[in-house]
Amino acid sequence: MMNTKTKQLSFLGIFLLGINAIVGSGIFLLPGQIYHETGIFSILTILLAGVMAFIIALNYAVMSAKYSEDGGAWIYADYVFGRFAGFEVGWFGWWLAVITLSAEIVALLTALSTVIPALHDKVIFNAIAVVILLILGLVNFFGTALMERVDNIATIAKILVLIIFIGIGFFAIKGNNLTFSVPANMQTPSGFSGQLSKALSIIFYVFTGFNFLPIAAREMKNPQKNLPRALVLIMLTVTLIYAAVQTVAIGLLGGDLVKSTLPVADAFAILFGPAGKLFIVVGMSISILGVAIAGSFNAPIEMASLANEKQLLPKIFGRKNRYDSPWVANIVTIIMAALLILSGGYIFLVQLIVLASFVQYVPTILAVIKTRHSPLVPGAFKLPGGMLLPIIALLVIGYLLTAQSPTVLLWGVGIFIIGLVIYIVDRKFSR
């Protein structure tokens, strides 16, 4: 199971890759939504979501110490629970990448709508979204060079914008905006639990992405040691950044945060007017575009890898052109991303992403439990507390599932059934 290929990424490289994989559009667009649900407790909500994601990430750290192959959750499921489990987890993994691509396109146009009023028209919004998807799909037919360059620029943009926002905004916080008070809809135990679960099920989106990091394990130096340690540091760093952004946004906007669709940009406008808002919008647009480009590149590769590496999908999905691009998977990805954009708004896509992420998390956690007696590489990460943390992680996911809407759950069931049909048909005709 060990890979002998020379590793390329250092510990710092893994850390930066993880930050880029996790930090996307959510932190720019969702602070107002979770403030609407939980008020001042939204800061605590982010910290709690970070702890929850951290506990889940620890399970990935354990499994990455046992399997250095790229693929992450579906590789773990395939080895531990068999072919069908690996297929369904991989199938949902591809959907997760596609939904994320759709959400980032919607986020990009939402940000640009502040400077391009025509984007408030839904028909124009959807038409431009589809055009962007087609352009991304076309670019992916001709290799990866552009994606790599834009990805680096996007990483710098998002980190720079957030650091500037936190660093300057912190000193302009209005203390009375951070006064402790319990929202009216949280003053009973059931109300508190209900609002908290709603907020957590949304804000958890900003922590998804760490599960993609083990996919790059083959490119890392000593992944059994470096990847687990990097996962821990990445989750701590991201949680603190998000909590700081939420605190500054509340401190600058107060109750107006609820009405804001671009909270970070509107908060910066308090200090620097339209120029400040434009600065944030440009920075976040570059950042979001980078995530979208990376998503348009990664999703077809994930589908193709399922077809080529372990033949979990029909081989047609793994076909590549002369530029080594998985062209069939590319076409399918763009079509499904377009349909998702037309099917619902940003919050709906965020909730779908969280649900699809859970399908990655649960088998990984169960794999940790099942392989708890398997030997680890000397010096590799060992889960503290024995089986306590995996059990807590499963309870956390169960709690967050209670806040998912019936529509989102039905989508999840539908994706599972479609995957089941593809799996059965492929197995029948490949004999």
UniProtKB/TrEMBL annotation:
It is found in: Cell membrane. GO terms for molecular function: transmembrane transporter activity. Keywords: Cell membrane, Membrane, Transmembrane, Transmembrane helix. The chain crosses the membrane at residues 12-34, 40-62, 92-117, 123-143, 155-173, 199-218, 230-253, 278-301, 322-342, 348-369, 381-402, 408-425. Gene3D superfamilies: Amino acid/polyamine transporter I. GO terms for cellular component: plasma membrane. It is a multi-pass membrane protein. This is Amino acid permease. It comes from Weissella muntiaci.
